[in-house]
Amino acid sequence: QVQLVESGGGLAQPGGSLRLSCVASGFAFSNYPISWYRQAPGKMRALVARITTDGANTNYADSVKGRFTISRDNAKSTVYLQMNSLKPENTAMYHCVRGWTTLEYWGQGTQVTVSS
Predict the structure, then answer these.
(1) Nearest to residue 81, comparing CAs of 102, 60, 100, 99?
(2) Rounded CA separation 116/104 (Å)
């Protein structure tokens, strides 16, 4: 079955960095775009970044442009989200999602907390 397993979250200080990973299984990974979404308490889920099948094109939320970088390694069925210059408002559960606009499968998420 389709699985998306996130890791790499944790506690970071403002200005710090974290690298999230999402390992996929159960489908032909290289055939699908992948997105990262976040959900903070009391707020709706929001797009963070997404990447096309070959990694040639990416799309970011305005709030993370220049600070976050999405990438993928199709040989490892893995997508990454490098998060730099973290801010307290980046605190949320981060989910890996199969798809670009049609969001078919969601991972369980990894918690990111930015606090001093």
Answers:
(1) 60
(2) 36
